[in-house]
Design brief:
The complex is a heterodimer of chains A (543) and B (183). Chain A contains 22 helices and seven strands. Chain A is mainly α and 543 residues long. Chain A folds into two domains: 171 residues, no CATH class; 324 residues, no CATH class. Chain A is globular and about 75 Å long. Chain B has 183 residues and is mostly helical. The chains are: A mainly alpha (543), B mainly alpha (183). The structure holds iron/sulfur cluster (SF4) (2 copies).
């Protein structure tokens, strides 16, 4: 949802190109370690029939490209200019007003001009001018056009993989240009040449083959969740009974696999399990799948076609099991794919039914076409209808703030539900400053497949604006818990918070829900899901 | 007037120039942005840097060195340690302070009663540079620790699942984030 500029503000925008006149084309970009992810392994491209699988390294001079790489790239560009109206439009209409220039967290954290969205796009646009416009063909550099050389390709690659596709810049563009979409197309072109990073290529290959980013086999996936079942019993005294691949269930639950294998996402996963158990007696009929065991879609970071192939697996599983609709967990880009792309990719999912909450009878009209409901919508609706018995004081030692994950916030407008839930399950909630939340939220610095370890320097600078706002509420209100609804956030934030010393730990929202949820027949709870003492129970715990 | 009084009187002008030098390592568009944008949430680098150098300056004017300098330096160095700088670039603004003061106060510094104070102040700045180096390397260390920590977190559940009882040690005793606790 772009902030609408008032007419007088639009008039105030300078139509001079201030940012491109500074000779950026002549400033060489040096590829540096810490600022990029490692190159893709050939086996991970082979699995999905992606071109040019070979061993290569980003720091090498020779990237082992096919001989006709330039032709492939330009053909690919032409093809996409024909196919995607937005691409063509975004290439043409930017007036270089600079409104987006200082809105990217990677620029804010580095001061590197090529991380200004306008210039990031200009790296690409200069090629468009050169090869697809008359002025560019005739006047070259004077018209902002440049030749596609090996060096230009490398520079473009470097900066395409320094954009987390967060879309913050697009909120501020008076023309609605979405630089993230340009990055998406740009990355597609790099994939035509086999120039992916392994942190994306491996999850794609795994997901395609096994159903999730980590390649967890069905039995191991089930084993992991059963492990949580034991932990939940230790903490609550209640044994929950999730079912797997159960045909005829009413609802299929899909969440990012990160929730299943990595802390602190695992506590959120336990949260889902506890909530579902609580709702069972109220009529919830839900199953997990060990095949559609991934909500995330790293295919979205390679090409539209690959995103479609992976997205289709979720719906194929829903069809196979004969469920009525799908409930989705706390994930980021999964929701962008569902909300903005799914219908075109694989929709309409008319073999499913329009989602209705079996507990409250609420119709989720917004999910009429995709048949997939966000768990925050689902839970907020339960709370609103007084269906949950909650004891928020069990979260009293948590002073919470909420990070709007880029995709749920900017790609689906999910702004109120998470806050509504938090306020009902916690007594201490404080917002970060307004220009760092909601539509203007700052990226975690590791979105769009950039959450590898080798690019830690990039992630830390990109995450600085977010961490800076967390530190502020920590210093001001004592915030010690950063809540978020994205698995990449949960993976990226712990070290970001640590490096910038914000004093905050990281949690998903359903972890907080489950801490507060009073289960029928539960034992006297002394710890939260992390096995840390509940407020007032510090003495009873032998820790 | 003592040197200290002069430095207090000229604080604004000196800090302005010191800020310029501190930002001098960034590309032109970066500098402009870091300088112009006054909102601390829209511009954490500019805000932290300007606040940091002011705190450092005030600290240098105190009679005895407090333990706060490392913290102030670290706030700035933590940022520089994840930007494209070499250690020498990241630290270059520190010795720059001497040059600015020399330019600002000129021959006054040669006056006998001031000269002695100036020599002391100069050695404080030298010491500041050394502390700055510590802060920079500590920050780089934190960065590498983060990489290790993350791998550890990712592996922990899987090890547990695989029934491997080995717990990866969290940190060396008494050492946190690459710094001894008592440092
Ligand atoms: S992308 Fe939009 S905001 Fe950015 S320079 Fe172009 S027109 Fe202006
Ligand atoms: S989409 Fe996000 S990361 Fe990419 S240029 Fe825009 S603000 Fe920067």
């Amino acid at each position: 949802m772009a902030e609408k500029l008032k007419p007088e503000e639009i008039l105030n925008i300078s139509h001079q190109p201030p940012l491109t006149s500074k000779g950026w084309m002549d400033t060489r970009s040096e590829i540096r370690p810490g600022m990029h992810c490692y190159a893709c392994e050939p086996k991970n491209l082979e699995v999905v029939d992606f071109p040019n699988p070979r061993q290569w390294s980003v720091m090498d001079e020779d990237w082992k490209l096919p001989e006709n790489w330039k032709e492939i790239f330009l053909e690919g560009m032409k093809d996409r200019l024909d196919r995607f109206r937005s691409f063509k439009l975004f290439m043409d209409i930017c007036v270089r007003c600079g409104a987006c220039a200082d809105k990217c967290h990677f620029f804010i954290g580095s001061g590197d001009p090529k991380n200004m969205p306008v210039l990031r796009a200009e790296l690409f646009r200069s090629l468009y001018r050169k090869y697809f416009t008359t002025a560019g063909k005739l006047f070259g550099k004077a018209a902002g056009a440049r030749e596609l050389t090996y060096e230009v390709l490398k520079e473009l690659w470097y900066y395409l993989y320094q954009c987390s596709e967060c879309r913050r810049c697009s909120v501020f563009c008076p023309y609605g240009i979405d630089t993230a979409e340009l990055t998406i197309i740009g990355r597609e072109l790099t994939n035509l040449l086999g120039l992916n990073i392994d942190w994306i290529a491996a999850p794609v290959a795994f997901c395609y083959r096994t159903g999730n980013h980590l390649g967890i086999q069905p039995h191991a996936y089930k084993g992991m969740i059963e492990f949580f079942v034991d932990e939940i019993e230790d903490i609550t005294g209640v044994r929950v009974n999730p079912t797997f691949n159960r045909k005829g269930a009413e609802i299929l639950f899909i969440t990012p696999s990160g929730d299943v294998f990595a802390d602190p996402g695992t506590f959120t996963c336990m949260g889902y399990l506890i909530l579902f158990h609580y709702l069972e007696s109220l009529g919830l009929d839900i199953t997990w799948s060990t095949y559609a065991s991934e909500g995330g879609n790293f295919g979205f970071f390679t090409s539209h076609e690959m995103a479609k192939r992976l997205n289709a697996k979720m719906y194929a599983e829903a069809k196979r099991l004969g469920v009525k609709w799908i409930l989705g967990g706390e994930c980021g880009h999964m929701w962008r794919v569902i909300n903005q792309y799914m219908d075109t990719f694989n929709g309409p999912a008319d073999f499913l039914e329009e989602p209705v909450s079996p507990i409250t009878g609420t119709k989720f009209e917004n999910a009429k076409s995709t048949k997939m409901v966000h768990i925050c919508e689902f839970t907020a609706d339960l709370i609103r209808n007084n269906k949950l018995k909650l004891d928020p004081s069990r979260n009293d030692n948590k002073i919470v703030t909420f990070h709007d994950s880029c995709n749920p916030a900017r790609a689906m407008g999910l702004l109120e539900e998470p806050r509504y839930i938090i306020k009902n399950v916690c007594n201490h909630f404080y917002e970060m400053p307004p220009n760092t939340i909601r539509e203007q939220t700052y990226c975690c610095g590791g979105g769009s497949g950039l959450n590898a370890g080798e690019d830690m320097e990039l992630r830390m600078r990109g995450g600085l604006p977010r961490a800076n706002a967390v530190k502020y509420v920590h210093d001001k209100y004592g915030v010690n818990m950063l809540a978020c609804i994205c698995a990449i956030d949960r993976a990226v934030f712990p070290e970001l918070m640590n490096y910038w010393e914000t004093g905050a730990e990281v949690t998903g929202i359903h972890e907080l829900v489950a801490n507060a949820l009073v289960l029928p027949g539960e034992k006297k709870r002394t710890t939260d899901l992390r096995a840390e003492p509940l407020p007032g129970m510090e003495e009873t715990e032998d820790v | 007037m003592s040197l200290k009084d002069l430095l207090i009187k000229n604080k604004h002008a000196i800090l302005e120039k010191w800020f310029d030098i501190a930002l001098g390592v960034y590309a032109e568009q970066g500098q402009t942005f870091f300088k112009k944008q006054k909102d601390r949430f829209a511009n954490p680098v500019g805000h932290t840097t300007s606040e940091g150098i002011e705190s450092i300056y005030d600290e240098l004017l105190k009679e005895t060195e407090s333990d706060k300098l490392p913290l102030f330096l670290e706030n700035i160095m933590k940022i520089r340690a994840v930007q494209d700088f070499s250690a020498s670039d990241a630290l270059s603004f520190i010795p720059g302070l001497k040059r600015i003061i020399r330019e600002q106060l000129g021959s006054i510094l040669l006056q006998k009663e001031i000269a002695e104070e100036w020599a002391v102040f100069e050695s404080k700045v030298d010491r500041l540079a050394l502390l700055g180096f510590d802060a920079y390397t500590n920050s780089r260390q934190r960065l590498f620790d983060s990489r290790v920590n993350e791998v550890r977190t990712r592996a922990a559940r899987l090890l547990k699942m695989a029934g491997i009882g080995y717990d990866i040690p969290v940190e060396e005793k008494g050492v946190k984030n690459g710094k001894a606790d008592n440092a």
